[in-house]
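The protein record passed on below.

***
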Amino acid sequence: MNIRSKITEILNLLVNRHYKIYRVLLILCAILFLAWLFPKNNFKYDFEKDRPWNYEDLKAPYAFPIIKSKEELDNERKNVRINFIDYYRIDTSVQYVNIAKYENDFPGFYQNISTDTTLNYNKSDSIYLYVKGLQLLNEIYEKGIIKNEHNGSAKGKIKVIEDNLSKELDYNKLHTPIKAFKYILDSNEKDKIQSKSLSSFLENYVQVNIFFDDEMTAKFLTEELDNILPIRDKVQDGEKIVSSGQLVDDAIYRKLISLKNSYNETKEGLSSELITFIGYFIIIGMMLYLLLTLNNLFNKTNANNLRTLTFILLILVSFSVIVKSVSSFAEPALVYAIPFCIVPIVLRAFLGNMLALFSYFVLLLFTNFILPGKFDFILIQFLAGTVALLTNINTSRWSQFFSSVSIIFVTYCLAYLGLHLMGSGNFQDLEWRIAGPFFLSSLLTLVAYPLIPLFERIFGFISNLSLSELNNVNHPLLKNLSTKAPGSFWHSIQVASLAEQAAINIGANETLAKVGALYHDIGKTKKPIYFIENQNSEINPHDELAPLESAKIIIEHVTAGIDMAKKHKLPNIIIDFIRTHHGTTKVEYFYKQYLNQNPDKTIDERLFRYPGLLPYSKETAIVMIADSVEAASMSLNAPSDEQINAIVDKIIEGKIKAKQFDNCNLSFKDIKTISKTFKKNLKSKYHTRISY
C-alpha cells in the first residue's frame, strides 16, 4: 500500500509539474546537443592571418613539425602530375610474329614482281630485296613503334618496361606507324635497285609494339604522390613563434596552425574530450540562462510560454548546425553566404528588438565556438544583423523589403572593407570575390518574409504585420458583427480603446490587446437580440425563458465565437481573448434569478459558469477587466466621479476575489495603473466634472 501511494504521489507530481519538467528537459537537451556539436578544441589561442597577435609572446612548448598548408600540398601534387613520366611496355612478340610472316610471304611476293618485265629483276636481286626488307623491319622494331596519341608525359619522355627493367626514351625519336612507313620509303629511294613495290609490301608487317601501361602508370604515380611529405620544417623546443602585437603573416600562421594541430593530437582521448564537453556545457548553460532571464525581464508572457522557448532554442540550434555543416563541407568563404540576418528579423517579429538582438548575440557566440579565431566574421555578422533590426524589413511593401536587403549588403561590404584596411593598411589585397557570398546572404534574407507567417502557424505566434491586418474593421468577422450586432460592435470598439491605453501604461503589447478586444465578442452575432446592448425596444427575449436557458444562451457566445474564429483561421493568440474574456466567472444575474425562483433546490454552479480559460497574460487580463468595466458603465446615467471610481474598483476586486488573475503575471502595481487608466478614460467619456 505504501509503494502504491508513493507511485501515485510521483505520478501526480509529474502531471502537476509537467510544464516545468518539459521546460527543463528542453533546455537540457539543447545544451547537450550544442555541447556535442561544438569542436573539442583545447587550444586556447584565437588567431587570424594578417591580424595582430593579441597575446603575450608565444614560445614552442615542445618541438613540433610545421605542417604544409592544403594549397602547398595541392601544388606539390600538381607538380608531380605535371613532371610525371608515363609508363609503357614493349610487346616483343609483335616483332617476332611479323618477321616470321614476312619471311613466309616473301617468295610469293617476289614471284609476282619478277614476272613484271619492266623491272628486270634477276636472282641476285631477289636475295638483296629479301635482306633489305628484313633489315628495315628489324631497324624499325628495335627503335620501337608507338601510337600517334601521346598521353602527356613530361617533356616528351616516356618510360618503357622490358624484361622487368625500365628505360627512359624520347617519345619524339620513336616511330609511329606513319613515321615507320616514311622511313621505309626514304630508305628504298636511296637504293640503286628500284624497290617501290618492296615498300608497299613491308607496310603489311609494321605494327605498334609499344603500348601505354595504365596500371603501372597509376601505381608509380600513386607512389610518388604518397611520398610527398606533409611536413615543411620543424620548430624547436623553446623557439619563439610570435611576439605580442606582431602581425600574423603566412609563415607564423603555418607555425600556429601546426602547433594547434599538434597540441590537439597530444590532448586526444576520452578524458580530455569529456572535460572539454563539460566546459561547453557550463558556458552554454550560463548563456541560455542569461538569455531566458532577459526574456523574462522584458516579456514575462513569452518567458513562461513553452512555444516561445521551443522557438528560440530551435533557431539557435538550427543555425549552429548550418554553420557547422557549411564550415565542414564547403569552401571557407561560403560561410559568409549563410543568411544570419534572418535570425534577428524573425525573432524581432515575435519577441521585440531587445530580445531579438540579445538572442542574435548569443547565436554569434555559439558561432565563435564553431569557427574559432573568426573575429572578422563575428563582427561583420553582428553589424549586419544590427542593421537588419533597425531597418523596416517586415513590411508589407516589397520595394521597402528589397531596399532593406540592399542596405544589409552595403553593410557587409563596408564592414569587410574597414576590417581589411585595419589589418593590411592597403587596398591591394582586397578579395573582391567575397562580395558574392555577401550578396547571396543578403538576398537570402528575403526568406525571412515567408518564414514569419510560417512560424506564426507552427508556434501560434502573431507578428505586428498580422496584427495590423487584423486591426481593420473591414475584416469579415467585424463587418458581420457591426451588421448583425451593432451594439456589441460598438461595445468592442470601446473595450479596444480602453484596453489599448491600459496596455500602453503598463508596458504590455497595446496592439495585441486592442485587436484581441475587437474580436472578443464576435460570438454574439449568433443570437444578437439576447444581449442587452443590441436590444432597441422594451421587449426582452429573456423574459420568456427560464434563468438556466438564458444563462446557456449567454455563455454560448464564447464557444460560438471560438468556432467562428477557427473557421476564419484567426491566430490562436487572438482566439484566446475570446476564451478568456469571461474566465470562469458566473452569469450572476441569471444565477441569482434562479436562486430566487428555486430557493429549495440544490444548484450546480457549473451550469452558470463560463468555460474559461483564465487569462494567462497581461493583455488577456486587461481585456477581461475592460469588457466588464465598459459593460457596467453603460448602465450608468450621467455618472459622477464617485460612481465611476466605485464601479471600477468593485469589478476589479470581484475579479481578484474570483481568482481570475491567478494564471497571469499582473502585479499590484499593474492593477493599480489599469484601474487609474479606466477611471480616467470613463470620466473623459462621460464628461464628469468636480462639484464646486
Remarks:
- The chain has a mean pLDDT of 83.
- Strands lie at 58-59, 64-67, 87-90, 157-162, 165-170, 210-212, 231-235, 240-242.
- The longest strand covers residues 157-162.
